[in-house]
Design a protein that fits this description.
Blueprint: H1 3-20, E1 49-51, E2 66-76, E3 79-82, E4 86-93, E5 96-105, E6 108-117, E7 123-130, E8 133-140, E9 143-150, E10 153-160, H2 171-176, E11 185-192, E12 197-213, E13 216-227, E14 232-237, E15 244-250, E16 257-265
Parallel strand pairs: 1-11
Antiparallel strand pairs: 2-3, 2-4, 2-16, 4-5, 5-6, 6-7, 7-8, 8-9, 9-10, 11-12, 12-13, 13-14, 14-15, 15-16
Length: 266
């Protein structure tokens, strides 16, 4: 039989079976509805993030230069005192950020200069004057070198900390570079050179708040920070320059506190 004849015969056989019902299988019962597939397991997020200098959780590439001015007020119970204005200036310098903080303390002008990494905010150097002494810090990972100079006198120490820490004077920039949200908690490493000991800032972010400052409304994250030495700071952090809109500082065991309030930003 030719191939054409075989195809025609097969076609007729199929049509006949379809009409007469030959070899038709019995209907199968409907399959039970399957339960929805379980989501793929994910790694649980740590309840408290541990942040050290160089941590991948810090992302500061979008941080922009600014010049901010603040009013500073000290409080002792119900009494308040004008502490004079404060300034915070952030500039770009190649792969680094150059920070200058100026204020008045006990009638004296204070100027603090900090250089930090552009991407990770890890500190490189810090220089400031303390009374009649000039202090210079150099950071190399977890190792910090301090040189104190007074006239011809020079005192140098090197402290090797357990973890690479941030510079506490620019902690607001670190906070602004974290993935803040309500309920966010973290432990942030910083170096306490006077105590020559590793210090940790315990961060808790309870909520957002709207603040009026420098002629506009800012949406801020309220960042409560408690240090190992018992001191506390509350920052109101925005995601736009100058990032720190307000800050309150409370020394350990003291009823007094002082705050910074943003007055202008360029």
């Amino acid at each position: 039989m030719s191939q054409r004849s075989l195809l025609i015969t097969a076609a007729f056989s199929s049509l006949a079976c379809a009409a007469l019902g030959c070899n038709r299988p019995s209907a199968a019962p409907p399959a039970p509805a399957s339960a929805p597939a379980a989501p793929a397991p994910t790694e649980p997020e740590p309840a408290v993030a541990v942040i050290t200098a160089g941590s991948s959780l810090v992302e500061a590439v979008a941080m922009r230069p600014f010049h901010a001015r603040y009013s500073r007020t000290g409080y002792q119970g119900a009494a308040s005192k004008d502490l004079g204005p404060g300034e915070f200036i952030l500039k770009e310098r190649g792969g680094q950020l150059d920070v200058t903080i100026s204020m008045t303390a006990n009638g004296d002008a204070v100027r603090d200069h900090v250089v930090i990494d552009r991407r990770t905010l890890a500190p490189a150097t810090r220089t400031f004057r303390m009374g009649d002494r000039d202090v210079a810090l150099t950071y190399r990972g977890a190792k910090v070198e301090q040189v104190i100079s007074r006239g011809e006198e020079r005192d140098a120490i090197t402290v090797d900390f357990a973890a690479a820490g941030f510079e506490a004077n620019v902690l607001e920039l670190v906070l602004a570079a974290l993935p803040l949200r309500a309920g966010y908690r973290a432990r942030i490493a910083w170096a306490n050179l006077p105590a020559r000991d590793q210090m940790w800032a315990e961060l808790d972010v309870p909520r957002t708040e709207q603040l009026e400052a420098a002629g506009r409304t800012w949406t801020t994250w309220v960042c409560d920070v408690r240090n190992d030495d018992g001191s506390r700071k509350t920052y109101w952090i925005a995601k736009d320059p100058p990032y720190k809109i307000k800050m309150e500082t409370r020394p350990a065991g003291a009823p007094s506190y002082w705050d910074w309030q943003l007055t202008s930003v360029e």
